[in-house]
């Protein structure tokens, strides 16, 4: 027995020793780490860039071209690895945890979660790198992006410069608006929709006046601590108190109105269970719905539906964590050339030539220029069709044939119009209450959609839902969030 | 020492035979074992890769386990894994044996063959494909089942977000996939029963039912026992594909679809709880292995030749 | 003699009423087993435009071959996926049969001095598994198999469970005397193995071969981990990617940037179902063959006992 034990421990020791050797040759890839100074036009270093989207045929060809440009500018070549939408989260988790060599990582609130991974140490802290190599970038993109995307006081990623605030709008099917002779200029609140819905219902009973899917939530002037969970802070708050959104008078009123609309037949009976309104949109049998807007959104909606769509604001433009963290690029904690990576991000976000090459491919092959800042896709672009939002500063992009000249000015103006949410850059750390949070999530799935779409009567169901949430531990989660928020406030002197 | 080399030399051919497999086990099973240490650490990424991360992460002793068992998760995933497997084993056994007997008694051999072929199909399909199949029935707005509910004037059901249906759905889908295969196994055993037993029974005037009860079923008992014991041994391991692909990873359903295997997977791949995930994995390994050993021991007592080791 | 046998069989038969009931019972279950596939075929042949309004119908109001046309026009993705899956399955099954059978034969031999050690060596691997990340590091970083077919083949090549099954098979159904007589004839161990043991153990090998073929054909996980190159994606993984991407879009439907960009690249409902059909077809044609072998193997085993 003694002997066996000894042998076993020898085996374990050998295994560990072997794996240490592995780590030496596996993770580091040579001992030259952290010397970001090297790499020039004659001797470029290689930057590995992981990003989201369906892998495109011509990625390597385009990156070869990109590399020529970046070699000259900053002494680095670029290798891009695309991972398909649905796989991104899972695959990045494995790649990062196993220390796969990489320099630049796409991150957002929806794919490879930014805040969580920043806290776990997946990304390099960028504060000093930004000061050293990111000055151009800092002066180019809207400062609210960098300010708003801090986690625990530090920057871990560069947000893409695009629409900054989130604004809700009422969208109208213009054909029907004209047909019924409706006036949409006075619409703003949920209540103000009533006469329009009523007319539509009377004039053509077979359409759905108020289109929505199960994700619909009436707009109330609060910012949610976690998206879609009923903890929120009022936008004009002074005491920074986290409240249960279901207990607020605004939400109660909104839900009552929703139920009134539902009973009147303005809302489809299956609203609480429909995954998407795509079919309605295709058929054009709807009068209005609510959506998030950005400048010139009406044009792109009209173009994609094939009939005119107009919109009026339903809320103020608000800058929230969610809007700031929609698309970002981080430098991997294991990057061998963090300084080069920062230089590249700096260039990508400030240099139109590079940015457009990454976005549209090679000039003359994938697109052709039709003006100073205008372009047109060529047939070959089907082999290099990239999601623009994920690749850095959008405002450097050349305009498409049907974009108006002042497209980016409109974006600038829109971004200027945004006001900060009181809890912008406060990121809740759910570690201590994760099991309660899961229970709360379950309760939410039970009650949320049917309440929010007005399918059930809030008189009876709202108190029930509140009680169920509290049973699941919502109060404990809120208390934890409150104490974190108080600490954050004290630190940031808000 | 000299003895050692002499032995090596004497066994060199057989050693050579195990060599490829042994190398495989070393690389794919033993080397990754070091990763199990993560279960006792609070994992943080480190620049130098995974092993360095492990070494640099703080020891937290049994904290990951304590945390795992202090949440409801541990209970839920253990309960789900066990209850589903028990249901699969029990119902699967009854249906498979029943089906095997039915197939063996059909007058037309040809029809029996055709039925077998049909029943055997699901066993060959991947869970990815089965997931698509199930979706064509359960899709909220397009699925066949909701249409059928519509025919009889009932409200459509949101299948993928209502946990109360899923225990039945999962059991059904599992039966659908496995019964064909298992009944073919049992059928083969029935075919192997010495025909003269039946002849003797008939001469004694036993009717068909008596024959089934007193010949077929007793003759099947050993193989039933062994197959069941082996399944019981693996009761702590769930069929990952069934619980991951078929419910389409729907978060609302986790309370009834989360099993140890999916929990370990999600901990790693989605929530990034590497330590917790490793702790759950280790928990499964230890309990599961104990059960395999016990089951094997029992099988050995029943029938030495059928035991695994 | 034949007549007599027939008479006995007839005498053994269940009554016609029960026969009808049994036929019904087995027939309905068999039909239920194939029905989902038929249904998916129907969906794939439905016109996309009527799908939106009437859902998945058993008898759609408008048929169309559009989905298949779309797939064949959208390039060689599917064909490549077929190629990858078939190559991986064939090479993988042969390799794993080779490794598993040699290993289990050696540890089934009583005169192998290290048989206990190597048995335990295999069994222990069933106890712990190191988890996904360490395995990933071995395959991708140490062995450097990323984006190669070997990354899909090697991780599934051995399986302690199969080794144990096959070892039991050898131990019980291959008599030692046979090996000894081979030795006396002057044959080497390998010769004995391939000339005597393999033919004898075909049923066992067929069973393991079937398991491992299925394992390779249905595997999507290794591709998720190790394959980035779109040219090396196997069938199941391709179907899986389409599905997870759909879900990703639904979860992020609030973010119009994502849904716009991602939706373009995804096939529509009927086309996805058509891919499912095309991915299943080879199995539909091949499995009756497997079934025969498998049943034979089982029957042989049963008779021997």
From TrEMBL, chain A:
Keywords from the UniProt entry: Signal
Short name of any one Pfam family annotated for the protein: DUF3502
Domain DUF3502: 422-490
PROSITE patterns: PROKAR_LIPOPROTEIN
InterPro entries: Bact_solute-bd_prot1, DUF3502, SBP
Signal peptide segment: 1-24
Organism domain of life: Bacteria
Residues forming coiled coils: none
Name listed for the protein in its UniProt record: ABC transporter substrate-binding protein
UniProt organism field: Saccharibacillus kuerlensis
TrEMBL record, chain B:
Residues annotated as transmembrane: 12-40, 82-103, 124-145, 165-193, 214-237, 274-299
Residue stretches making up the ABC transmembrane type-1 domain: 78-295
InterPro entries: MetI-like, MetI-like_sf, UgpAE/MalFG_permease
Record localization: Cell membrane
Domain of life: Bacteria
PROSITE patterns: ABC_TM1 (PS50928)
CDD domains: TM_PBP2
Mode of membrane association: Multi-pass membrane protein
Primary subcellular site in the record, as a coarse category: membrane
A Pfam family matched in the record: BPD_transp_1
Keywords: Cell membrane, Membrane, Transmembrane, Transmembrane helix, Transport
Tagged with keyword Endoplasmic reticulum: no
Entry similarity comment: Belongs to the binding-protein-dependent transport system permease family.
Listed name of the protein: Sugar ABC transporter permease
Species, as recorded: Saccharibacillus kuerlensis
From TrEMBL, chain C:
The ABC transmembrane type-1 domain, residue ranges: 82-287
Topological type in the membrane: Multi-pass membrane protein
Superkingdom: Bacteria
UniProt xrefs under InterPro entries: MetI-like, MetI-like_sf
TM annotation in the entry: 20-45, 81-105, 117-143, 149-171, 192-217, 270-290
Key words of the record: Cell membrane, Membrane, Transmembrane, Transmembrane helix, Transport
Pfam families: BPD_transp_1
PROSITE patterns referenced in this protein's UniProt entry, alphabetically: ABC_TM1 (PS50928)
Localisation: Cell membrane
Family membership: Belongs to the binding-protein-dependent transport system permease family.
Protein name: ABC transporter permease
